[in-house]
């Protein structure tokens, strides 16, 4: 019998008891969204840095603090967990939580490597747990409207190209504050490293983990995962068969291992391609998705979508987002914790979109065109 067999069955109006694993800015921010639903109590918070535990407890005043996520998972008053650690801890924390019988909301990307994905999917299914990946566009109202009105109806015609881009994302340019020049006594560096090989205290690697491929996939898995998931959602396809990529550390010669400029191109068997471009170089900002078909094109971001028909003189159709999508995504997760229905950003969906991003990074690192079997989920030999 699995650990999940002992998990509590929640009533329709019962408050869900939530634990937070990873109390950085994103974790505390999304925890605030959970609290704003008025449907949950935060009973536990966990981080390897005492200062961040203290900050989380200022918002969740009754939460018990932990420095080891396994001890949090052993708590009887935790029904579900929000995981917002650096990427290299997502897999371990998620699998441990699922095996402990907890429902899971885990920030994207779901995985650090393609190989981790099937293991998390298996843990969710074996334990019959809800696992929502933080790709909030899946629950966004104007995203769902665009899918219904332009993709489900075929109004774009034959789609041949999906362009995505995300320039100047400041999360990848964070500089460690001077107070971290010396490792704080209440920061467990060894536990932060976790599965990553040992290196001495490095404040920049701790503070800006996104810039290092040891801890994540740089802009590709941090940003492209959001956008390729939007493309997968609209197209109803998540099965790239080839990938190429090019880029490098062209501007920020600060020790980072993730490229500051990157181009990725994925090929899909239904005869269309998806691209991603990103640079951190100063002077260019902005992000979006543009899906091009034979009858028109649709642009979409987190604020609005715009459809432009190829029909001469046709005015563009513009629809604004009614609210920030994380709210919808959190509410969907909580509803599924009670109904036991699969959530909008189910673990398998999160795995497939992360895998597509990983293909881009692997092609970049190996400097070759990858061939991929999406059914067997394996990279094919040269």
Largest sheet: 10 strands, mixed
Based on CA atoms alone, the radius of gyration comes out at 21 Å
Portion in strands: 15-25%
Supply the number of helical segments.
11
Q: What is the CATH class designation of the largest domain?
A: Alpha Beta
- Biggest sheet strand line-up: 14-13-12-11-7-10-9-8-15-16
Helical content (DSSP H or I, runs of 4+):
25-40%
Report the CATH superfamily of the largest domain.
Answer: Dihydrodipicolinate Reductase, domain 2
Q: How many domains, in number, for the residues?
A: 2
What's the order of the H and E elements? EHEHEHEHEHEHEHHHEEEEEEEHHEE
CATH topology of the largest domain: Dihydrodipicolinate Reductase, domain 2
Instruction: Tell me the overall shape.
Output: globular
Global structural class: alpha/beta
Taking all residues together, what is the mean pLDDT? 96
